[in-house]
Design brief:
With 292 residues, the chain is of the alpha/beta class. It has 10 helices and 8 strands. It has a single domain, classed as Rossmann fold (3-Layer(aba) Sandwich), CATH 3.40.50.1820. The longest helix is centred in the middle third of the chain and has 16 residues.
Length: 292
């Protein structure tokens, strides 16, 4: 299976903080020393080699996701940069801090993770959907942490139209019924083409949704990210899918709502989860940004 193969090539890093543990998967960091060892309940910084190293690229996944949102991208990206894919607190294998209910509450915890992991050095961050919104809020509140930010299909712009026809699972449902719910939701929100929803993708989605401890999110439909841009000090780029269901009739308004974007690109024939549905086209869009 693709996930198992890609994961087997990564370094698995677990860090413990006073509020819980977080998990990273790292590719292309063979020149880093003392990368993973967690040495205290308060967490540990990751010690980088003294010799000059390529700048790390931090990947932040979308809502109800994990590092696996980037499973078709990490190997390619790691050819240019050490890639650090985080399970955001409350998702995947990372703990949810007590009292956090949405992206805005995660910001100080995410800032703490990045500051400790990279010894207060600013890093490049690429955030998908919920992860992009959270990173944008962090860039506003902790401007010294991020050197460059790439937003991928991020919400929080006040541009969502009608509610998508999403479905929920119920305890009485059987295995096949639950998988059909995930198939429907992936088609409704994440992908532009039904053939993108394979059995492996349903497996991935089912596993990620089962580990989502932050279900009652509220601010994605607000203008919280658009409002945050006045505090950005780093270059921020935008990459969206041409057929993103969340921006069905408003995609062309994104650069207007985010005039601070250094660049804005649209990946053709791709839905919301564009880097999975059209990885080659996505890489063509972001590769030049990673050379800046």
């Amino acid at each position: 299976m693709e996930i198992s193969r890609v994961e087997s090539q990564s370094k698995h890093i677990q860090q413990t903080y006073t509020w819980g543990k977080v998990v990273w998967h790292v590719w292309g960091a063979n020149n880093c020393t003392d990368v993973a060892a967690d040495k205290g309940a308060a967490g540990t910084a990751t010690n980088m080699a003294n010799a000059p190293q390529p700048r790390p690229l931090v990947l932040l996944h979308g809502g109800s996701g994990s590092w696996t949102h980037w499973v078709r991208n990490v190997e390619h990206l790691a050819q240019m940069r050490p890639v650090w894919a985080l399970d955001i607190p409350g998702f995947g294998d990372s703990d949810l801090p007590s009292g956090v209910s949405d992206a805005d509450g995660l910001v100080p915890y995410l800032a703490e993770i990045l500051m400790r992991s990279f010894k207060d050095e600013p890093v490049d961050v690429m955030g998908f959907s919920f992860g992009g919104m959270t990173a944008g809020l962090m860039a506003a509140q902790y401007p010294h942490i991020i050197r460059q930010l790439i937003l991928v299909g991020a919400p929080g712009l006040g541009l969502f139209g009608k509610e998508l026809p999403m479905r929920g699972t119920a305890t009485h449902m059987g295995h096949a019924e639950i998988r059909n719910v995930h198939r429907h939701n992936l088609n409704a929100m994440m992908f532009a083409h039904a053939q993108s929803v394979t059995e492996d993708v349903i497996d991935l989605q089912q596993d990620n949704v089962a580990r989502d401890r932050l279900r009652r999110r509220r601010i994605a439909r607000t203008e919280v990210l658009a409002n945050a841009q006045t505090h950005w000090t780093c270059p921020v780029h935008g990459v969206w899918g041409e057929l993103d269901a969340l921006y069905a009739n408003t995609l062309q308004q994104v650069p207007t709502v985010l005039p601070s974007l250094a660049s804005f690109q649209v990946v053709p024939d791709a839905g919301h989860w564009l880097m999975y549905e059209r990885p080659e086209a996505f890489h063509a869009a972001v590769d030049p940004l990673l050379k800046l």
